[in-house]
Design a protein that fits this description.
The chain has six helices and nine strands, in the order H-E-E-E-E-E-H-E-H-H-E-E-E-H-H. It is α+β, with helices and mostly antiparallel strands. The chain has one domain: Chalcone isomerase (3-Layer(bba) Sandwich). The longest helix is centred in the N-terminal third of the chain and has 25 residues. The N and C termini lie far apart (about 60 Å).
């Protein structure tokens, strides 16, 4: 092969490699961070608002620290103030990506414990808690539960399918308190989703 043909072949291969690299960069989702091999997007949209990843955490259970789910908290504006986040009417998202199978009954039991541990009086939201717990399904490794907070309600999505919508300002704050309240499932999880 003469030098001019070799040069053209090398230029063509270089251009092809650059175009491939650009295509991969443009077509790949933007990932802000990873925890426990779970990727979280840098930004998401809830309602008509773009939200940013505030932080991530890991829900562990038992003395053996079994990894149950990776969680990401998305807010309109980053914050490390749990009370301000829960009091805010801004759109929010909580995304849980499961690393272990969990039954619907175990999920409901965990949520109920979270409500009781972090809400002073749940008597006024018992119907919403029952509806929330009834929306749960068995999940396995790789499944997700997303909670979108917007317009005075929380949409519950399991594997990106809308399962239910539950209204009520007190209920919305109580749901967020499961992870942001005084007794979260574990302290490192709360610290992580608050950006710490």
């Amino acid at each position: 092969m003469d030098s001019s043909k070799l040069r053209r072949t090398l230029i063509r291969l270089t251009i092809t490699a650059i175009i491939s690299l650009i295509a991969l960069t443009v077509l790949s989702p933007v990932t802000a961070a990873t925890i426990a091999d779970v990727n979280f997007d840098d930004k998401v949209t809830v309602g008509d608002k773009e939200l940013v990843l505030n932080g991530m955490g890991l829900r562990t259970a038992t003395a053996f620290k079994v990894k149950v789910y990776a969680i990401g908290l998305y807010l309109e504006n980053k914050s490390s103030d749990a009370e301000a986040i829960m009091a805010s009417a801004e759109n929010k998202r909580i995304t849980m990506n499961f690393l272990h199978k969990v039954s619907a009954d175990e999920l409901s039991g965990g949520w109920t414990e979270g409500f009781e541990n972090n809400t002073k009086d749940i008597s006024g939201i018992k119907d919403q808690i029952a509806k929330f717990n009834a929306s749960m399904k068995d999940v396995k490794t790789g499944d997700s539960i997303i909670l979108n907070f917007s317009g005075g309600k929380v949409d519950v999505l399991i594997n990106n399918t809308l399962v239910d919508s539950i209204e009520g300002e007190s209920f919305l704050k109580a749901v967020q308190a499961i992870w942001l309240g005084r007794k979260p499932p574990n302290e490192p999880l709360k610290k992580g989703i608050l950006g710490g």
